[in-house]
Amino acid sequence: MLFIIARYNASTSNKKSVLFIDAFDIDSLFIHQRSNDNSAPVTVQVGGTLIPAVTITAAPNTPICLGTNVTFTANPTNGGTNPTYQWQVNGVDVVGATNVTFTSNSLTNNAIVTVTMTSNNPCANPLLANAASDPIVVQDPSTPTVSINFTPASICSDNTTIFTANTTHEGTAPTYQWQVNGTNVAGETHSTYTTNALTENDIVTVVLTSNESCLTTPNANSTGVSVTIPSINNFDFKGDFPNVITPNNDGVNDIIDLDQLLSSCLEYRLLILNRWGNLVYEQQKGGKPFVGKDINGKDLIEGVYFYKLIINQSERVGFITIIR
Ligand SMILES: [Ca+2]
Fold it and tell me: How far is the CA of 249 from the centre of ligand 1 (A)?
């Protein structure tokens, strides 16, 4: 299609210049030509065929979370004054989706949104233009979780206990709120909680707030950790004190670990003495367990040894036999 638009200043409209065009190979040009009596400039526009085009922008862009509203916008070129649209999802027309924007919250993974624009520009040829979105990655929402670890394993009333939140889907900047008996502990908003102020039967919990982008819910509650403070004023063994140790690394009776055997918050000393009454090994609370070696790490010979367990100015004594 070829057309010419010529505009003339009204006061000089009877003083037309003549423009001859033999051939051109460009879509449009502008000619400024001054008439010979110094009147206002005359602009002549020569236009050729205009090819319509359209692109799509999406907000938010892929990837998205399942159920998110995504608005697609058509960006026309040479669409004319009133282009019309038809949007499609996976190649199927969406009924009523004929505006410059299209919003959906029901896209499935890898959906492709396309638009067909019909230009009403009189120079447009062809009239239709198409565009397609990138495949929309649709993520399934996750559910954050939180659980609590704590050390030491046995909580003692006057000892410091460190609680640690173990989380999944916590995001890049999670926040925490530690609670004791369901009440927020002021200022305890980090991934660990250190305290020596617990009493028997207190329940410690933590609430996680995740900032991950695609979640069913941002909050997760831990199960409670019940504080049990062991009886500490007597020798409270978990079973009998062993009288035989077989330190041959077969996994059976290879060690004696008072930290595991003794339910107590008190410091203790376990002394191992040989038949001549000489100290050959000693374990204190939190120390290395007895594995049939002496203080210098040397294997003790088979035989009967004497032990003395000292807690809170009380003593318990007996025999341990080493069999290899
Ligand atoms: Ca053994």
Answer: 6
Could you tell me which CATH class the domain 53-139 is placed in?
A: mainly beta
Which residues have CB less than 5 Å away from ligand 1 (the ion)?
246, 248, 250, 252-254
Contact 143, 150 (CB under 8 A): no
| pLDDT tens column, 231-257 | 444 455 555 678 899 999 999 999 988
Cα(323) to ligand 1 centroid in Å equals 8
Tens digit of pLDDT for each residue in 42-66? 444 455 789 999 999 999 998 999 9
- For CA atoms 166, 168, 171, 172, the dihedral sign is positive
What percent of the chain is helix, strand and coil (3-state, nearest 5)? 0, 45, 55
Domain locations along the chain:
3-47, 53-139, 145-226, 244-322
**DSSP summary character for residue 46:** E
224, pLDDT greater than 60? yes
Architecture of domain 244-322 in this structure: Sandwich (2.60)
Q: 235 C-alpha vs ligand 1 centroid, how far in Å?
A: 25
CATH architecture of 145-226: Sandwich (2.60)
The rounded Å distance from CA 324 to ligand 1 centre is 7
